[in-house]
Structure formats: structure tokens, C-alpha cells
Amino acid sequence: MLTRLALGLIWLAQWLPAGAIARLGRGIGWLGYRLAVPRRKVVLTNLRLCFPGLTEAERIALARRHFSALGRAIMERAVMWYAPLERVTQFVRLEEVEHFEAVRGRPVLLLAPHFVGLDMGGVRVAIAWRTASMYGKQKNPALDAAMRHGRERFGDPVLISRQDGIRPVVRALRDGFAFYYLPDMDFGPRESIFVPFFGVTTATVPALARLAQVSRARVVPVVTRQLPDGEGYAAKFYPAWEDFPTGDIEADTRRMNEFIEARVREMPEQYYWVHKRFKTRPAGQARIY
Fold this sequence. Notes:
The structure is a single chain. The protein contains 12 helices and 9 strands. By secondary structure, the protein is of the alpha/beta class. The protein is globular, with a radius of gyration of 19 Å.
């Protein structure tokens, strides 16, 4: 019931001006910080691990800004899921696309870390180019339907189930689809290796290097940032990585984490801190959460 009410609120918000949607989203983030106590604890734990040099007051202030950005991103899906194409393309601008255009014509992996604007960037990139991405089915049917609708309504992107493994991904890459790859979540020990992230030994999926090797794809990072004052989002492309993969899976995965960490330091309130990024621990280490 709550999910349907939330989805109804997002649907109604499509008719609001961008600034009003942003203010509504920040208000929801304000409530989320106060009411979603377990997730607030996860955020503060993550910030304590990743930013040990901050004071507790500074970490709390950063957590509040994160919930504000996250609440905005949730409500601004009103534009991405329901607004006309013209408004969507104006709401999310593309930056430095020459880095992507330079390697088009061969398989391309778009490295897209988990910032709050991740879905906005994914939808916008799918409008401009043929893309594929991994999709995890949501437990709530109404939420699952809304998310699929939002991702599929422009550009005819290919959504690949996580349970299907990498073969459909390689096939899509070879068929000319750029793969919008979300690499930085904890999927447990079976799929991961341990490499540092903010100095913390972190279970990290090493599929980026493996996919690049199997498909001979170039890696082009694309990071979507939330703009101030309800101005929407900007999806910025970075130069294609040279000398990647190297054949050293640990070094390649560490390079990926280092790139993501550098982007997080640029806009720390926008990283997806509500995720239990450090849940899987090496053998013998205590649980963090």
C-alpha cells in the first residue's frame, strides 16, 4: 500500500516545475533521515569507515545532505518515468560525449557507479545511443513495473537479468549495444574479490575486467551528478581507459575502485551510502553492520 502511494505521488509530481519537485524531494529526504533509522545507521557507518578524518558532527551533516539528495532523486523520477521526451532530454544533459564517440564502432562498457543520479543518466544515455544494462527484479510488483517502465520507454534499451550471467552481456556488446554497467555493490563472497575501497578491504565484483577481456570492449566511465536548485542532472563521460584490462584481475579491479573513490570525493553527498557496501567481510573479520 505504501509503495503504491509513493508511486502515485511520483506520478502526480510530473506536472510540477522542476524546482518544486526538488523541494518536495528534499523534504522527503529530511523525513527519511529521521524515520529510516536502520538506513541512517548504515549511512553513518559507511561515512565513519570512508571518512575517518571527519568529526561526528561533520559526518551527520554529510548524512543529512545525502538523504536530501536521495529524496530528490526519488521524486525526480517523476520526470524520467512519466514526462515527455523533450523534458527528459532537457532535464539530463550529456557532457564530454566526445570520449564515447571516439570509441564507438567497437564494444563499449560504460562504467556507471552508484550515485543518486544513476538511473537518470541511464535513461538519458539510452535515448541517445543503443544501450543494454543489468536489471535486478524488484520484490514489490508495483515498484518493479514502474522501474521497468521508466527504463524502457525511450530508446528501446535491452535489460538483462542478473541471474542470466555474462553471456547475454557479451552478446549485446558484440551486437553493438553499449553496456551501462553498475559495478559497485556487494553481491556476496561468491561473485567477489577483496580489494581496497577508501582503505577498507571490500568485496568487489571483478566483472568489468573480465567483460572487457572477453568482449574486447573499451571502458568509458560515465558519472551522473545531481545539479543544484532543481536544475536536473549532468551525465559526464570520461576518456576511455588505456591499458585495460591488464590480465591482473586484482589490479584491474583496484583501478576501478580507485576511480570510483576519486569521483565520490568530488561529490560525497551523492554516493549511494544507504547500501551496505562493506557487508561481506574476509574470513575471520567481524561484521560491520
